[in-house]
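I am writing to request your help with a piece of structural work I have in hand. I set the record out below, with my sincere thanks for your time.
___
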Amino acid sequence: MISKKLESMLNEQMKNEFFSAYFYLSMAAWFTSKNLNGFANWYTVQAQEERDHAKMIMDYVLRVGGNAEFLAIEAPDTNFTSPMDIFEKTLAHEQKVTGMINDLMGAAMDERDFKTQHFLQWYVNEQVEEEENASGLIEKLRISNNSEAGILYMDAEAAARVYTPAVQATT
């Protein structure tokens, strides 16, 4: 059984993960509208991963005797001006998500809920990768001096990203 506090926090995080998917789809749509289909692919794959993250939380909540609640998802920001703008918003968003995961882990630690701590450790590790990916996009674009050639090269590179379902160790 899971505490009501952790159940509520996990349901909120499930909503936040679904919001992330929604947010990244809005970025994919912007890139598609600019004919930067490689970046559109990259963000579509990112959205698929975020949906996986939400579903894993839902499954966990149900496995430990909680109730999965589907909370309202707000509309994402769709006011983008450039690839760099999107990459910077991606990094800021992932840093915010890292804080949310850390808050969840802290609550699980406070409650001495070791199974939830074990479950959340995957998310702690995942956030390192998420922030690294966003930082890498920013750094590559900075190195190219935000040039059109750099953007096109990165777009072609992003087209190669494929969706791989998230896998988490079972508790």
About this structure: The chain has one domain: 4-71+79-158.
